[in-house]
Amino acid sequence: MSGKVIVSGVSLILVVGVAIGVVCVVNKTGNDPALAAHQKNVQSICSATEDQKLCQDTLGSAKPTNDSDPTAYLAAAVEASAKSVILALNMSDQLKVEHDNGEPGIKMALDDCKDLMQFALDSLESSANLVRDNNVQGIHDQTPDFRNWLSAVISYQESCTEGFNNGTGEDQVKKQLQTESLDKMEKLTGITLDIVTSMVHLLQSFDLKLDLNPASRRLLEVNELDNEGLPKWFSAADRKLLAKITRLHVDSTLKLVSILS
């Protein structure tokens, strides 16, 4: 499982990395107009986020090939979120080994966290593919999906911490996991979500004249559903993620029933 997760995480980062482009390493700004435009773009994008300093630190290393195209900044934000999730997943694995002979509840909670972090990676992979495979207009049109994937990542992080019982030896493990990985994961994903939520502001800051009407969802017709009741356009990755989430919910319910009985 751990090997598979590491490979998946590395692949995700490589996918996002292609969209980010050249890393900007500059010791002296001087009068470089391209660098000045880059810094202006970062400040403008981050003005709509809750933690502007962390946002600027995160996006500052990305330099798009086109100063009027914000997709590289979106890709950089998604990549940072993915790296934080991988850190949390690997730490869950490490803590599980350290507490292998400890309280059963710790092992159970860490197992659930590992599953939840894998789900989070799947959601971020969908986000990375969206940024990679679409132009700015296409990304804007799919903003609701983008927001849902990022919101799911934050929900998985919250579910991970809720899996530990308060007032027990599990508290210390939870605090360590939070301090060293989950808190940063929540902040970075929150920044990405802030940027996507304020997509109109983002596009206007780049002076892009696009169709800014809110992306709408229409009801699915019966002939657009498959024999499992899912939209025919669902990708294999979407189906796999949905199956994993359903399985985790079933397992959690069975564990709760076992504890109460």
UniProtKB/TrEMBL annotation:
Coiled-coil spans in chain: none
Gene Ontology MF annotations: enzyme inhibitor activity
Domain Pectinesterase inhibitor: 37-195
Highest taxon listed in the record's lineage: Eukaryota
Entry-linked Gene3D superfamilies: Invertase/pectin methylesterase inhibitor family protein
SUPFAM superfamilies for the chain: Plant invertase/pectin methylesterase inhibitor
PANTHER family associated with the record: PECTINESTERASE (PTHR31707)
NCBIfam families xref list: PME_inhib
Name the record gives this protein: Pectinesterase inhibitor domain-containing protein
